[in-house]
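2024-03-11 09:14:02 INFO receiving multi-entity request
2024-03-11 09:14:02 INFO entity count = two
2024-03-11 09:14:03 INFO echoing inputs for audit
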Amino acid sequence: MMAAVRPGPLRPYLAIVSARFRMLLQYRSAALAGLFTQAFFGVTLIMIYEAFYRSSAASAQPMVFAQVVSYVWLAQALLAMLPWNADAEVRAMVRSGAVAYELCRPIDLYGLWYARAVAQRTAPTMLRAAPMAVFAAIGLPLLGLGEWRLEPPASLAAGAGFAAALACALALACAISVLINISLLWTVSGDGIVMLVATAVSLLSGLVVPLPMFPEWAQPILRWLPFAGLADLPFRIYNGHIAPGGLALALAQQLGWTIALIALGRRLLGRGLRRLVVQGG
Amino acid sequence: MRDALRLYLHYVRVSIRSQLQYRAAFVMTSIGVFLITASEFVAVWALFDRFGQVHGWTLPEIALFYGMISITWALCDAIGRGFELFGTMIKEGNFDRLLLRPRSTVLQLLGQELTLRRVGRLLQGMLVLGYAAAAGTIDWTGPRVVLLVASIACGVCAFLGVVVLQATSAFWTVDSLEVWNAFTYGGVTMSQYPLAIYRSWFRGLFTYAIPLGCVNYFPGVAILGRADPLGTPALVGWIAPLAGPVFLIVCLQVWRIGVRHYRSTGS
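2024-03-11 09:21:47 INFO inference complete, emitting structure
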């Protein structure tokens, strides 16, 4: 009889994702408070870009204003998806020594941590993204601020491309998240490396300022670093700054970096575990 | 009063000593905070590299507003940490302990922690301010230097007021609400640019309700020696910073109402 419910190879990972999901969904009021704060930030940033756009010639403007606005709102909506912090659970485990239990589980540790990362990145994002998008797309016009609203995707193809690029961005974000967690094996307290990564992620993914705003000479570098795939590429596919013709290349870049970083993560994890000294009893 | 100050300094000493126990971690986090805040200025630089100016304001001028508000917030964040973490204190019922002691709750909360790792933001703000000062756009006079220092002090009061309000709201909502970050961190972002570039309702909010514009923009214009595009007379920049301490006094009154309203969670 038991043979009938023999679990598939993915089953334990799915269980981890759904357990974490349910836990994170407990914090609904925090999400609501976060929504207000992020909407406020979005409006502030848009006013700053508006001021720059009003006092400059069109030739200096790398994107149309409406595209900048969409970029800002997508960044606010998808903030929680970016890999800017360590998994609090993994951090506690490394500190307390409970990470040893993780090693006892009969599943691949990298896969386990990747599944954790998927849960950590998607649950809060799903909670925040939809209300944020509703506010930015429908709420703002109702408030009489229609020129600051989140426009729909530039075209049907752009919308579909955005969905694909967003999925790849998530895969990439999780690969970087796991790398952050692995770094904890070396540093224990680990705030320094995490903050370094957070700086690189927020600045080079387009979160602090849209990447096309940077000087022209920096564009080729920014374009090919892994961080562009986290936010900038999907956002520019959405607002039409990257034409549907450039989609395949963008997706290939995201996936290429994801595979490379997963391979790196696996190697580092193997090394980290070999030299791991479990803290305490 | 002198006794209270002595107690506060004692709190500070204890706090500093405990933070310096993990020296390597302290250095790493300070560097991290410095880099994160420095990346914000990189973004500002990028915008000016591309656009040259915003409503006629140039990068060295913006750097004055930016440097002032960074220093101001870094100081408030270091001093007011106890209020920022107040939500947790209420949740765990630890506020009861403070009420039992024969000292003011405000003093005890200020003494909770003097956060040293904010030194990264402070340093970043000082570097940006140094750039603004050295860029040659400001004609430095004695009174202007005094105004700069006074504005930062008044600005710390204004931010402390917001942080006190944030803590006060926890008396009713039990947990500290992230909503207030809009006025602290959001206020910092807003203040990095001159108030004049924003819409009028937004300017009103940050002039009359939460007086961050009064402690940063108006004195900044006076220090730069520019005519205010908003049309306020030159004298305003020299008086407006006083709104900071006044705001703090009002916020402390609200805090007292909150304390009277307090009922322990019992846990």
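2024-03-11 09:21:48 INFO post-check: Chain B is about 75% helix and 0% strand.
2024-03-11 09:21:48 INFO post-check: The mean pLDDT of chain B is 90.
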